[in-house]
């Protein structure tokens, strides 16, 4: 008798729209989540709701036949996304009635393990619901003074494009919602899926929340050369395989010399330099988020032996991988 694999429930992402929603705050992240399912990642069940059946955006586009928010059937691990609204309208109280209506429901969802994301002034909506106390969060730069006055218990980070803290994800202004959505795809799927989404959406660089957390998987160095992208995808998706430039040439039916020259022109790195950076970044993830030994991490990253891994790691980080793990371990 054949084993039947259970069908996994799609992760549900519910966009909760308020009067005067900013179109970019809503459309950008929605497109990211949609594209993830198209390029080989998990599929997401995107749903759209409001307090009323229809709302008008700040750009005077009217959305009709929206779900009433209480009809949403969300479970632990699903996501509620709050796009921002026009700041002046928020200050004038345009959304106050809607905020009061949804607040008890939002709080119940959070208690049930549903995560919440905001874009731009969406963090102000969440703050008015009383859900940002003690939470690291980001918001649009022009709202900072208002934010600090209204929500003094929130831990506002002006140095971040987005923050991921305790199941609440907040992003700064406008297009940073796309950056946050890509970071969530990386978190839920893997960096390669996020990179494919960025490439599909013609986003040359997914901006990290801080430069220190830059991700080599998504760093396309402002290029869109299909051969170079294919090399990056091959190397990033098969870290355990010891590819040579001749192997890449045969797989892509291209001259190894041509590929080497092309890669250096478009990325500023040699293929081996890029491969080493990818393997070291993957090694860092395994060191910090698994219980694998240093030797096991080295093998999982495609190094011939642990000595080679340790030598490259010390050159990059300044300390051996075991010491790095102890230094960066959570208290």
TrEMBL record:
GO molecular function: DNA-binding transcription factor activity; sequence-specific DNA binding
Ranges where the HTH araC/xylS-type domain occurs: 229-327
Cross-referenced InterPro entries: Class_I_gatase-like, DJ-1/PfpI, Homeodomain-like_sf, HTH_AraC, INH-QAR
Gene3D superfamilies for the chain: 3.40.50.880, Homeodomain-like
Family annotation (SUPFAM superfamilies): Class I glutamine amidotransferase-like, Homeodomain-like
UniProt keywords, alphabetically: Transcription, Transcription regulation
The keyword Transport is annotated on this UniProt entry: no
CDD domains xrefs: GATase1_AraC_1
One Pfam match: DJ-1_PfpI
Record flagged with keyword Membrane: no
Highest taxon listed in the record's lineage: Bacteria
Name the UniProt record assigns to this protein: HTH araC/xylS-type domain-containing protein
Source organism of this protein record: Flavilitoribacter nigricans (strain ATCC 23147 / DSM 23189 / NBRC 102662 / NCIMB 1420 / SS-2)
Lineage, uppermost ranks: Bacteria, Pseudomonadati, Bacteroidota, Saprospiria, Saprospirales
